[in-house]
Design a protein that fits this description.
The structure holds two protein chains of two kinds. Chain A is α/β, with parallel strands linked by helices. Chain A contains eleven helices and ten strands. In chain A, the strands form two sheets. In chain A, strands 6-7-8-3-9-10 form a six-stranded mixed beta sheet, sandwiched between helices. A four-stranded antiparallel beta sheet of chain A has the order 2-1-4-5, covered by helices on one side. In chain A, helix 3 packs parallel to helix 7 and helix 7 packs parallel to helix 8. Chain A is globular. In chain B, strand 3 and strand 4 form a beta hairpin. Chain B is mainly alpha-helical. In chain B, 69% of the residues lie in helices and 3% in strands. Chain B is built from 15 helices and four strands. The chains are: A alpha/beta, B mainly alpha. Chains A and B meet through helix 2, helix 3, helix 4 and helix 5 of A and helix 9, helix 10, helix 11 and helix 12 of B. The complex binds adenosine-5'-diphosphate (ADP) and magnesium ion. Magnesium ion binds next to helix 1 of chain A.
């Protein structure tokens, strides 16, 4: 199995607090679940991978290349896309515009071309619209008719879908999903599980790291699970292995 | 078929109506102008509630060539309409110059959501550079204008690069400081006239024809202002077209994404520093060229044309017209220029009256006369999509 992403003894300190502690992690062509009690450093770890935080120590390798010190936009350009724990779409922009932002890293038009070669600029946008609508249809066809409405008017489950669609529309190699089912009811959670499964069905060339509190989600879609506690990796393996682990049980019960 | 002709003429009539309303504002007394504006606001507000505005946008957008033709004809005929009243032409020219500055400022306010408090400094940078080079160095005003534009961009990079690392209040403070330093520098630099300004700025020339000579057209004598009127409005058309293309491109979208959430924007692959700096530099370029033209038009520039209050007026134009809406920004600039000129009769109370008019309009239309809209990419296919709520309803930061 080819490694897609690998971290080597990554740590980050916030003042006196070590939010991620000496973390060795790797992912290949698979879906890996990242679990752990609240405050165990899961979101912080994704922020390190996507370049929002720089680790205090340790390195991050993506496709064998050291990306530790790259800024977020270059990491996105390399092929790592993400969603956020608190749904962060551009609320004033339409669904379509949010989707087009997901394609930004694949588009080429510079400001100069936008002004002086507007036909090639609009051709690129047109292709982007087609691609965006195709992916939206994949998640929820009803969204297509609402493509020109501001995201503000859309219910939460669909906002989550749009955020995931925005992350995958630009054909990333690795997608980071931060609690995609938070705030959804069980019916909606089931739909979300299917939606995430769809990503892999569309292309097996997408690896996924998913942070999740709902263990049914973890058990149904992940191939491997990593459990964090206080920034440290305390268990790793299939879901049933990790679920049986004594450390994991005490972390969840005690934490 | 009949429906098409009907829509065609309806589009033409609405554009004509807008032109006529603007002409009435331009040529009549303050009270009449204010009544016209009030009427327009009522129509806009009622129309928005009944979703008529959306249809008008579409009507005008579908018949672009016709409407642009009507507007061009209106500008072309303006010198004949005003019947030798050069002052009205002067107002129209200033409205065009200010519109260019406001369009540039809108890249920052409407695009990346950062208020630059020093547009008048960039405007002044263009004016002083071009005036100095052509008066003291004997450079051709055309080349001077180009240098003015370049120097404004340089100022944009020098100030924008460090300031844009931090956003919000910090950037505002830096630009306010820039504005104050700029006026102080001018007052204290005798080599560019200090507090006395630069008089005797030469005008543009094309093959020996000076822009400051009247033109005779078919037996009718037209004042020299028509040269500048046409020059300014041709430029305004080009700059508005460029602004509109940027707005509809991935660049404009990236600006809006940064305005909404810089971290999310960065995670979509947008280079925050470069993209924001671009908004700053393009804005500076617009202001710089407008300032240079202003100097060569009036032949005199002084520090009072480029001070902090002028900057505030530019900001008001963008916000009152409607941020991130190209026609809105131009409308805001044109209306405020006209109101400002008409308030000259009030001399002492001028600024007070100006403020009152602004406050009243903004209370009634807090998002500006023509608010920011959802981007529409393919006019033709659009009918398939639901069109309600095309106006952005929520507040942006
Ligand atoms: N920017 C920050 N500054 C200071 N502390 C932070 C910051 N981000 C996260 N933390 C702390 O790091 C710890 C891990 O947080 P987080 O990664 O959000 O946990 P979770 O596993 O719930 O996603 C928490 O104690 C949190 O308070
Ligand atoms: Mg978290």
């Amino acid at each position: 199995m080819m490694g897609v992403l690998r971290t080597e003894r990554v740590s980050i300190d916030f003042g006196g607090l070590r939010a991620v502690d000496n973390l060795d992690f790797q992912i290949g062509d698979e879906i890996v679940g990242l679990i752990g009690p609240n405050g165990s450093g899961k979101t912080t770890f994704l922020n390190i991978i996507s370049g929002i935080y720089k680790p205090t120590r340790g390195r991050v390798y993506f496709n064998g290349e050291d990306i530790t010190s790259l800024p977020p936009h270059m990491i996105r350009a390399k092929g790592i896309a993400r969603t956020f724990q608190t749904n962060r779409l551009c609320l004033n922009l339409s669904i379509l515009d949010n989707m087009l932002l997901g394609l930004y890293c694949q588009q080429q038009t510079t400001w100069w071309q936008a002004i002086f070669m507007s036909s090639s600029s609009s051709r690129e946008i047109k292709l982007g619209i087609e691609k965006s609508l195709a992916i939206l249809a994949h998640f929820n066809p009803a969204l297509i008719t609402r493509a020109y409405e501001p995201v503000m008017t859309i219910p939460l489950i669909d906002r989550r879908r749009i955020e995931i669609a925005r992350a995958v529309v630009g054909d990333p190699r690795l997608v980071l999903l931060d609690e995609p089912t938070a705030g959804l009811n069980s019916e909606e959670t089931n739909q979300m599980i299917n939606d995430i499964a769809k990503i892999r069905r569309r292309s097996s060339q997408i690896s996924i790291i998913i942070i999740e509190h709902d263990m049914t989600v973890i058990s149904r879609i992940t191939e491997r699970v990593v459990c964090l506690n206080a920034g440290q990796k305390i268990a790793e393996g299939t879901f049933s292995e990790v679920a049986r682990n004594e450390l994991v049980r005490t972390a969840y019960l005690g934490g | 078929m009949g429906n098409k002709i009907y829509r065609y003429s309806l589009a033409g009539l609405s554009t004509l109506g807008i032109c006529m309303a603007l002409y009435v504002c331009l040529s009549s007394a303050l009270l009449v102008a204010l009544i016209v504006i009030a009427l327009a606001i009522v129509i806009l507000s009622v129309g928005e509630r009944k979703n008529v505005i959306d249809k008008v946008y579409r009507l005008i957008g579908d018949n672009k060539a016709l409407n642009l033709g009507i507007i061009a004809l209106f500008i072309l005929l303006l010198p004949f309409l005003v019947q030798g009243n050069n002052y009205l032409l002067h107002i129209a020219i200033m409205a065009g110059i200010f519109s260019i500055v406001a369009l540039g400022l809108n890249f920052q306010i409407g695009g990346i959501g950062q208020i630059n408090f020093a547009p008048a400094a960039f405007y002044g940078m263009g004016a002083y550079t071009s005036a100095f080079l052509s008066v003291k160095m004997g450079l051709s005003p055309w080349l001077g204008t180009l240098c003015g534009l370049l120097m404004a961009i340089v100022l944009g990079v020098v100030v924008g690069f460090p300031a844009l690392k931090a956003r919000g209040y910090y950037l505002s403070l830096v630009t306010i400081a820039l504005q104050i330093i700029f006026t102080l520098m001018i007052v204290n630099s005798p080599w560019i006239g200090g507090p006395n300004g630069i008089p005797g700025i030469p005008s543009y020339q094309i093959g020996g024809f000076s822009f400051r000579t009247p033109v005779a057209l078919g037996g009718i004598q037209l004042p020299y202002q028509v040269n500048f009127l046409y020059l300014v409005y041709i430029l305004l058309a080009l700059f508005a077209l460029a602004a509109n293309r940027l707005y509809n491109s991935r660049v404009g979208l990236a600006w809006n994404a940064i305005e909404q959430d810089p971290i999310v924007a960065a995670c979509q692959g947008i280079n925050l520093t470069n993209t924001q700096l671009l908004a700053f530099c393009l804005g500076a370029a617009y202001a710089g060229i407008a300032g240079a033209i202003y100097g060569h038009y009036t032949s005199f520039i002084g520090v009072e044309n480029f001070d902090f209050s002028q900057s505030l007026i530019f900001i008001c134009m963008v916000i009152l017209g409607g941020t991130d809406n190209v026609p809105g920004v131009v409308l805001g600039a044109v209306l405020l220029t006209m109101i400002d000129e008409k308030l000259r009769d009030f001399s002492g109370y001028r600024l007070l009256m100006y403020g009152i008019v602004l406050i009243i309009i903004l209370i009634i239309r807090p998002k500006g006369l023509l608010p920011k809209r959802i981007r529409v990419y393919q006019q033709k296919d659009r009918s398939e999509y639901s069109s309600h709520s095309a106006v952005v309803t929520g507040g942006s930061r």
